[in-house]
Amino acid sequence: MNTLHDLLAAVADGGDPGPFALVRREGVDHVDLFTGPVGVAERLADLPLPGGGPGPRTLALVPYRQIAERGFACVDDGVPLEYLTVTGHAELPLADLLAALPAGPVVTDDAAFDVDDDEYARIVERVLTGEIGRGEGANFVIHRTLHATVRGVPLGAALAALGRLLRDERGAYWTFLVHTGTRILVGASPERHVSVDDGLVMMNPISGTFRHTGTTADRDGLLRFLHDPKEVEELYMVLDEELKMMAGVAEQGGQVVGPYLKEMAHLAHTEYLLAGRGTRDVREVLRETMFAPTVTGSPMQNACRVIARHERTGRRYYSGVLALLGRDAEGRQTVDAPILIRTAEISPTGRLRVSVGATLVRHSTAAGEVAETHAKAAGVLAALGLGPQAAGAGPYPPVRWADDPEVRAVLAARNAPLARFWLDQRAPGAAVLPGAVGRRALVVDGEDTFTGMLAHQLRALGLAVDVRPWHVGGDDDGYDLVVVGPGPGDPGALDEPKMAALRGLLAGRLDAGRPTLAVCLGHQLLSGLLGLALHRRAAPYQGLQRHVSLFGVPRRVGFYSTFTARSATDRVGSPYGPVELARDPRDGSVHALRGATFAGVQFHPESVLSRDGMAVLAELLGQLLARPALTAHGDAEHG
After folding, report:
1. Where on the tree of life does the source sit, at the highest rank (predicted)?
2. Which of 292, 390, 524, 572 lies in the 20 to 30 Å Cα band around 72?
């Protein structure tokens, strides 16, 4: 069934028109109608993407449980990876579609959240104290789901809800309805997760939520929101996490553009855009970017563990993606994938689910995060008759605070303290250290893919770099430098396999006198081997930017840590020779250390928060690589 008239007639008669999707993408005045058969795939790699002329090929509904493809934890609810093979495609003028869609009210019964406000508040407190406060990560998203029953024909109700979203919501990246025969998804997602077109990979992290109920946001309230440290830091943290993903799917990593203001009917968000060139199969891009930190947390692998510990049920399609795969005019692969948020799932029997989550960070309050879940669900709930519509239409065209000079100035000022490495176009060879050319580095990943960003920076400095997970065996003899990288967890838990393995690697490097750099968790373990005492901070340093003195030089750097080494003096002896420390004068926290063949930093030089990160790396590498380069057998070359 390839025409809108036939489709709507079948629904009006109480029949099933067969699988279809209606999709309006941001910035266009038409809606795409896709039709075709539906299949089920086991893995993302199994999604069909045949050749041929330009156009869409496959529309995939990717559930959250696919995160298991990356080896990450999840509550497995068995929800399938369904896909529609596009055999019919028509572009419908928006006005014609709106005139044709059913206009009657959507009526539901028995609406209630599976986790009530009080219990959600208790979960928030447990995550803040037991996870962020214990060093498990910087931020986590915990979801709750509203359940209800739709009266009447479910597909008719979904089409009516789509009409309301198309009329009343604004700022959506995709507004859509997908009917597979086994389920209906209808929503208005504000957020592109990932797209690939003409070899350009783009991601679009959105974070920070300003709630309002008027036709336009209150300007003074909006400016207060834009200055709020919690909201600013929350966006920085998801920016860092998506830069980690870009490091894996774009050859030179991602370049940051923005920030911008995204205005919607019930709320406003702040957002960045990331772009980079890549050549990977788009199904691999989807796999390696499962799923956005804005709906999971960071670091990603541990965020999935935390989610599994605190959520009662599987997420179904919430926080997964829709993914439209296709080909361009030259036959190259394309993908466009919005995140499945602000979305309702309706079963053929009328069971309705709307899932929503709040991002929990060190500044969070239980009451504030409860309120945020209600605000985020407001748009789709209003379209389903479960909440008030946004206030009636105001002036036309609507007021756009994104065009206000003061709003633009406040947003632009957010970039002033950030690392230019990620903000500016990088000319090849511009940052190369002469002593790094021809040298090899191994970065050992402690379950935090900040290591991907670190590898890009080391390559920009001239090194050839390999990245290896901590649990993968292999020797390090042929490397001029080993970087023991960051990761979550308690560095004092020395019987935990990851801590034991990283500590053993560090001890071997120290004993052999081979150049070693340790970052964050690696720095904490190195500090322990050098005899320094480790402490848990009273307040976590998660996503925190600070000015510190590093060996007499002022630097602005970003921290993601809960533990720290401390010392009462700037120099200490160790089994591996004298160690110079850069300490906080207030409490003795060790921000960095260096010895004859090793160095460590508690902060993340690779983070977008580390404005001076590249300068710090260049200085430390200048010291560590002063020795002759190694041969493939681990022996020093002599001129």
Report:
1. Bacteria
2. 524
